[in-house]
């Protein structure tokens, strides 16, 4: 069971979490609970680091922010004992979660579940584990996995313990066909395939962290997304993220995701010669800019070409500066850009076996007067880049088109 | 160097601490800094524990409260790096400070300074150490030393590193002949003997924790008490706590301490027979009540005796209840008690070689109309128990009597 920051934001909520855990223990399960820091706490700690020095060592940042989960794990262990359950807290270094030394965004190398399993064996002791953190074995120093890392901690621990399932409790009651704030008729999904969830998380759905879904898929950990605000005595089932084969009725499109975190860059009349793509995208890759959609169109002048691509909005200015630096080698004439764009995506493993899924979308969007700036497709999804002003209209259009609206 | 909660209460103050440390590094010292949690933070964390459950496991309490020092150590390491100094934080489990398993009030068994010394050796790296915490080696769990334990951490670490000295930075600029809030003419002492400081701390002076002084005395660690609010570029020397032999001019009385944390219990007309003391004080000792002053007076009736003793004010009600339970075996007739009492003490190693020091005090107090309820003496101190209303008068009287007033 994993509980995020809003689920443990106050001691009262932590006591409520304890009641959720008790229900599962009484149902016969041995339980490990992964917790985040109390909501707002991590931001406060990060703020202090910035106040202490404009440039701070990530290794010390990790020490400061990891204290947030430490507090929550201790408090939840206390609350569980108060519910009459044997319980103890485990910090990342105690389990241990062995990670890389990439302080601030370390990767889990290995999780040793032996101590926790021994507690299950000896006295059905609930393990309360600080998420988001680990230890670098060689230096013995505290590491953190980066924002949202608690989901990853939970799935990695579930895999290490060979758990029957991993329940991610959050402030929503499952995975929806799209954001219900935009489409009120969005439906909660009973089941989503790992690959679909991975695409949804990558394409803007915020319900789960991408790396946690990758891990769940890799280790085939059945993972539920469910609400910590349900009545602990009578919770709803939430959404199961599972193997594609475990989903009986598969629709062609499962969900519509969108991401506002996009910026478009267009290079006009670039010389159409071998090596030009490398000249453009090499320097961006070197600077860790993640280029997403790329389209190339032959321009009026046959010797040149127009190249359009997207980068994360946060990297937009930096990307333009890098391109300016390499203006000569690229043979650049004109750079255009836009940040008021959005990427809307439709995801579904059913696309593999159904042709023409995307083309129906292009027609439907054109009918609504929505101009498509770029397109990318893969086996189980397609994305369109459009003007941000049309976001809601486009999402609702696709949601209806693929029969996702609640009756 | 050790900095307490008020010295690190804000990030701005932590940056000021970094300047104090830089001064010592620039003076050529390798420095280990022990820090407390930001002022108020520990109380907040303890409050959360109490909110989570009325009765909480001390092992989880330790996990929660130890997070406070973790935050400070990380932030100070960042602030030191910002001052251009190599620095890294060390948690209790990393150093490690090996302790007993007495969660909430663990005792330090061993401090391993090897890692910190290696950092000194390799790159003059400042070690920023979380005070107040350790690890129990067998269970691998976080322990804390109890309130005020950071002083003890600092002295123990200084001993382990064979430090030239241990500087305890606090919100006062040294040890005074008595509390300056009560006696404005109190003087800051340049030097105090370990044994005197031990008595002062035990008898109510709050400047240092008793266990830290015991350790300093045991390991002969020269320890300074000084102010973190001094100008980092030009600090005052503070008070040196050192071996008696290192103090040239020793006055007979060095300081006057007082403690309001006392309660008096008088048992009237107890049968004066062998074993009665054991019948009274045995049950109190079994209940961990620390009985201090004891006086026995033969009453009018020669077959009985009156016994007066003091207990900590916090144990007063409990002590009376215990005595009631053993009324039969003690042969108890009447119990009287008072909580509005105060213990005033005069301390000085010079008492060893000077007779009649205490008797001068009794006369001076009597002259002021102050009634003495009980007296205890030892080699280097004497204490009187008086009505709390006379506290200030008694302290000022003794302070003047022994020539401690500032000119």
Which assembly state applies to the chains in this document? Answer: homodimer
Proper CATH architecture of the largest domain in chain A: 3-Layer(aba) Sandwich
Radius of gyration of chain A from CA coordinates? 23 Å
Q: Helix amount of chain A, in percent?
A: 25-40%
Mean pLDDT of chain A: 93
Question: Helix count of chain A, per DSSP?
Answer: 12
Q: Say how many strands of chain A there are.
A: 20
* Euclidean distance between termini CA atoms of chain A: 32 Å
How many independent structural domains of chain A?
2
What percentage of the residues of chain A does DSSP assign to strands (E)? 15-25%
Main sheet properties of chain A? 8 strands, mixed
Description:
- The structure is a homodimer of 407-residue chains.
- Helices cover 35% and strands 25% of the residues of chain A.
- The first copy, chain A, is of the alpha/beta class and 407 residues long.
- Chain A folds into two domains: 2-246, Carbamate kinase (3-Layer(aba) Sandwich), CATH 3.40.1160; 250-407, VC0802-like (2-Layer Sandwich).
- In chain A, the strands form five sheets. In chain A, strands 3-6-2-1-9-11-12-10 form an eight-stranded mixed β-sheet, with helices on both faces. A four-stranded antiparallel β-sheet of chain A has the order 13-18-20-19, with helices on both faces. Chain A has a four-stranded antiparallel β-sheet with strand order 15-16-14-17.
- In chain A, helix 1 (11-26) links the parallel strand 1 and strand 2.
- Chain A starts with a strand and ends in a 6-residue tail after the last helix.
- The A-B interface holds A 11-12, 14-15, 45, 48-49, 51-57, 59-64, 66-68, 70-71, 73-79, 81-82, 88-89, 91, 93-94, 140-142 and B 11-12, 14-15, 45, 48-49, 51-57, 59-64, 66-68, 70-71, 73-79, 81-82, 88-89, 91, 93-94, 140-142.
